[in-house]
Structure formats: C-alpha cells, structure tokens
Amino acid sequence: MTIKRSCSMPSSQSVPGAPAPKAPDLKEPVKPRQPLPPKDDQRQPEVRTVAGAEEKVKGNGRGQRGEYLTTATGTRLYETDHSLTAGERGPTLLQDHHLREKITHFDHERIPERVVHARGAAAHGTFLANGAAENICKASLFASGARTPVFVRFSTVLGSRGSADTVRDTRGFATKFYTDEGVFDLVGNNIPVFFIQDGIKFPDIIHAAKPHPDREIPQAQSAHDTFWDFVSLHTEATAHTLWNMSDRGIPRSYRMMEGFGIHTFRLVNADGETNLVKFHWKPAAGVHSLVWEEAQIAGGVDPDFHRRDLADAIEAGAYPSWDLGVQVFPDTEDEMFEGIDLLDPTKIVPEELAPVQVIGTMTLDANPTNFFAETEQVAFHPGHLVPGVDITNDRLLQARLFSYLDTQITRLGGPNFDQIPINRPHAPVNDMLRDGFHQDGVHTGVAPYHPNSLDGGCPFMASADSAAYIEVPQEVSGRKVRQAPASFDDHFSQARLFYRSLSPVEQEHVAQAYTFELGKCYEENIKTRNLGILANIDAGLVSIVAGGLGLPVPEPTEPLSDPELSPALSQVGAEWPVDGRIIALLVDENSDLDTVVAIRDKIFDAGMVPLILGPHGGTIGDGDDAVTVQRTYLTARSIEFDAILLSGDVSRIGEGKLDPRVETLLNEMYRHSKAIGGWGESMGALAAAGIDESALGVVVDADAEGALASLAQLLKTHRVWGRFEVPPTPSE
C-alpha cells in the first residue's frame, strides 16, 4: 500500500498518529485563517438533502467555517477566556450570554453518562462534628456531637463509564451531607488546585483532555497532543498538571486519598461574623499512591481496582474514614492571605502558613444497594448550601453554580432530579415547584405562588431566627469586563513550591510521568513548548525530561523563585495507621495451618485484612483444620496486596524452583517497594525468587507473630522507599 506523506514529516513515509493535517507552530497562531481541512485519511458523510438528493458544496460541507470564533448564531466574539464580571474581582454576571451558551452546550454533550466524572464508586456513611467549627459557622451539621448522614462518590474525570480505575487522572471527591437544614454538597477533587481560573474555560480544558474526537482515543488518558497543546498555551494549568504528573495522579485507593474543596468559601457564625475557608479531607490511612507499573497491571488484570477496594474494605469492616478540616483566613476586603489570592483556584495556601483545623470525622460504613439507583443517579451541585456556608467571587465556582444544575436536567431527565431517592433531602421541602418530567410528588393545594391566601398563606418566608439561608451582603461595583486580576498572572511559583517540596523518589516519579506523557505526543513543537514551561519550574526536572525526549534543554524565561518548602505536600516521610491494609498469607499443603489461622486472626485484630493465597481454590487441609483459600495463584496479582507473609518454604515445584506465578508476585512486590515477610523456612522460597532476605523491607522470623509485628511496622510508612537508590537530580 502507499503510505501518505504527513505535513509534519519531511520524508515520503511517516509514522501514523498525527493529530492534525498540519504540524503546529511553536508559538500560538494569531493570524486569522479558515479551519484546517480533514486529514487525508479521513472522510465525511456525503452532503445530501433529507430526500437523498446530492448537494453541491465547496470545501468542508459538514464542518464549521469562518476565521473567527462566534456564538452558535454567528456573532463574532472578542474573548472566550474570561467571564463577564462586575469589575475584575467581582461576581460573574447572569447576562453573560456567551458563558451560558458555552457551558450549556458543554453540559449536554454526553447522553446519558456524565460529561466528566462518568466513572465512579460510592458509599454511605456518617459525619460526626467535633464542635471546633461552631465559632466560625452556624450550620447545624458542625455543632458539637452532630451526626449527619452522608453519601460520597469518588470518580475519575476523563474516562467513560467503562474505563479503568487506575488511569493517571484527577479524582473527584464529592460528599452529600443530608443535614436537618437541607442538603449541603461539598464537591471537590483529590488535587487542591484546578487547571483553570475561570469557569468559561471548562469546556476547553475538557475538550482538550478527552479522547481525540476523530478516533475516540486515547481513553481516560492525558498522554496525547490536544491536552499538552492546551496546557502549554494556558500556563495557569501548570500547577494542576504538575500535581497530576505526581503520584497524586494514581492513588493507591480511594481510602488513601485526600480531598479538597478547591475554592475559597465564606463561613458565617451565629453573630453574623464571616471568615474565608478552604475545606480539606484528610484520610486516616494516610495519602498513598500506586507506582506506575502497578497502575498499568491493574488496568489490565483488574480495571475495577479502586471500586472493588472500596467495597471490599467496607464489607470487611475496615471502614475508611477522613477528618474534615478547614484552613481559616480573615475575610478582608482584598481576599488575599500572605500574598496569595484566595479567589484563584489554581493556588493553594501551604499548611505551614495556615494549619488545617479538624472540625469533624467522616466514616463510610455501607455500600450502595443498587449502583444505578444510587451511585449513578446521585446529583451533586455546589449551589446546594446550608445556612452558614456562602460562596465567594471565585469565577470558577460561579460558573459551576450554573453548570451543575444545568447538566443534571439533561442527564437525569428533567428538573425533578432532587426527588430521586438518593438525592432527597432529610429536611422538610415545600418549594412551590410543580410538574415536569418525573414528578413524583402528589401536591395538594391550588396556590403554588407567594404570597397567597387560598392555601392559607403556606409556604411562608423564613427568617434568620428560623434558619433561613441568607447570603452575606457585599458591595458590588465596577465596570463590566472580561478580565482577570493581575494577581492571577503568577503561573509558576506554586508549581515550583510543590515540586521542590516532594521527596527525591516522588520527584523521580514526576520526571518519569512527564517523560512518558510528552513522549506520547506526536508533535515536537508541543513537546518543546512544554519543556519551556518545565524550565520555569526546576532546572533538574526539565533536564531529565528533555533528556528522555531527546530534545534540547531550554532556559527559563522567568526568574526561579526560592520558595519556603511545604513538607505537608509530600506523601513520604511520616507514619500512618495500618487499618485496612491488605495482607496476603501465602500457604500450601505443607503449611502449619494452626499457625496460619492464628496469624490470620492476629491480622484481623490489628485492623488489617488477611487474604489466604493458595495454589488452588476451595480449602487447604482436612476437616475442622481446613483453611478456605480466598485468592489462588491464578487469580491473584501483587497490586491487590500491601504486603505478603509466607508461611514457610511454600510454593516449591522442585529443588530451587518456585511456582512461576508466585515468583512473579514476589518480584513485583519487591520491585514496587512493598513489605515482604515470612516465618519458619520462608527464606528458601525468597531465595528461589531471587530476593535477598537481608534486603530493606524483607523480614524473616522464626516466629509468625514476630514476622507480623515487623511487617506491620514497615506498613506504617506504606512502602519501603529506601530499597532502591534514587538517581540524583541534576543540580540547578
């Protein structure tokens, strides 16, 4: 066959995969031109009338045309990166027809699954307030001792419902509080900063990150040209992109994942005093991640890895829990703190500057009964607020207030989605809203308007004394503008703060992630553009990535700051409870089953989950001494276990040889820096796998309880990161 020449390749043959018919320029194009034609390998349906007659058209008859960005009705636009606000720091205006058209169309792009966060898992639980927030917020759910039912949905952002759990992606962390004052939704992510500063760009970043529209690949990945094209041209995305390329992009488990409200909220106390806050969820198990190879293995052998892990932990009684905390800031007129703009969702406030104050604890203790009825139909909305919690002029949050409500109407079939059982409030509802698709209420009365006399005046207006929701009155002034404040212009200092606060092994993972993702891009100019951004973060990082891509190392275009490091940003270096950790107990017919049963009970007593791993299903042993096998060599893989215990010299198939499946499992766990232990003659099996019993994180004891104690101690740090030497980062 004939291989057609690509415009980006000088030879007569080219590697397939070019994202566009013409190679991009290094700099953003600014000279108006018509849209590019389809690629040579693409064809569209013929242009015909509804009656089948052929239509004669010039050029791309089914595509869009014109040099300039317009509304859907052809009106040319001068700006699409900034919402229309009352002054450069004011709220977004309802009259912004371009914002509403752009967001409305985006909200309705997917039927029937969510446009974003389609792939999710959820659980029921309870939030118990400790009273620490009573002085800053009058909401009843924060009163000391208040117990509030919750439903939490975790999710990936980019993939479809059928994608894998362990892709590199931001994770959603959305919590619905069923309070006695109404529903409060805290809709956040596992990363505290966002890609964009203004919600009007949300369709753009998701369009860029989603699979290419011509081939619908790659699924649930950002390792492609359109994503890296966007983030290199919108450098406000730099901090979030760096977080995503870190270990935070591939969590070990939903149970071991932080959550963040992202935005700055305004809290009001009983005296009407206000403070600005950022919400944080802190997992009791600590913040831990998969290593890259584990994520790849899981995507193949268990694409449901995260949802299975969450459901199994709850079923086993290892209930995951998180502390909810707030960073509290004075509600000053400039809405700044230590030089950080609190209305910029691409910025964090380091915990060393504003400690997270714990205000309660959430425990998830029940799985959904029906995935569709609960996990799929739950509807979150940042506008679901309760007295004491108010919004700010964060323009990303302002757009979300419109977008979330709008998208539910299409996805859930009409305006009555709040009547679906999982969404129903636990407080009395008398909203005067009537009819519409899927109206489940049988309303009485003849006067759904206010005021009325025919229904006895009901419903009546509430007051502050009767828990009415009253917005904090604020002055609004300024010219109508599409403009960002100057404080939004710093796009690199916080990315540098984050990277330099990581441990060496975490920094190595970031460099590997960038090298992989940019290596998947087709266009060299996109790679080069992103290297220019990395040069403004860290000289060592850009040197490693450029070397991996085989491209020159660029010089920074901005001065490199010397940030005060934030140890709280690293996942390495502390100790955490071992609750819920999964231990593989490797046994065979030669194991001392009495000891196996005893040590299994000890693992349960320590709050961990033991899984018996054997050569076959069913049981091992006879009669009352038989032990049930939960995982076999065929069905198990290392990714499922946090550590492994060998009950002696097990799984041998000959002198000096192990069952190859067990050898693979042990070698993967060793390579992934997991704790490995055993008792009795287990050193024989380890030696057969090529594992040195004196290696860091490998413990062998004559006594099973001693081996378990050593293993549990190692698990407190999650992994044995010191097992392998990290190459030194090139000096700045």
TrEMBL record:
Lineage top rank: taxon: Bacteria
Occurrences of domain Catalase core (ranges): 70-458
Keyword Lipid biosynthesis: no
UniProt: heme binding residues: 114, 153, 202, 400, 404, 411
Gene3D superfamilies per the UniProt record, alphabetical: 1.20.1370.20, 3.40.50.880, Catalase core domain
Enzyme active site: 117, 189
Coiled coil regions, renumbered to chain: none
Keyword field: Heme, Hydrogen peroxide, Iron, Metal-binding, Oxidoreductase, Peroxidase
Keyword Secreted carried by entry: no
Enzyme class: oxidoreductase
Linked residues for 3'-histidyl-3-tyrosine (His-Tyr): 381-404
Cofactor: heme
Gene Ontology molecular function: any one: metal ion binding
GO cellular component terms, semicolon-separated: cytosol
Protein's GO biological process: hydrogen peroxide catabolic process; response to oxidative stress
Chain intervals for the UniProt region annotation (Disordered): 1-74
Family to which the UniProt record says this protein belongs: Belongs to the catalase family. HPII subfamily.
Function: Decomposes hydrogen peroxide into water and oxygen; serves to protect cells from the toxic effects of hydrogen peroxide.
Stated name of the protein: Catalase
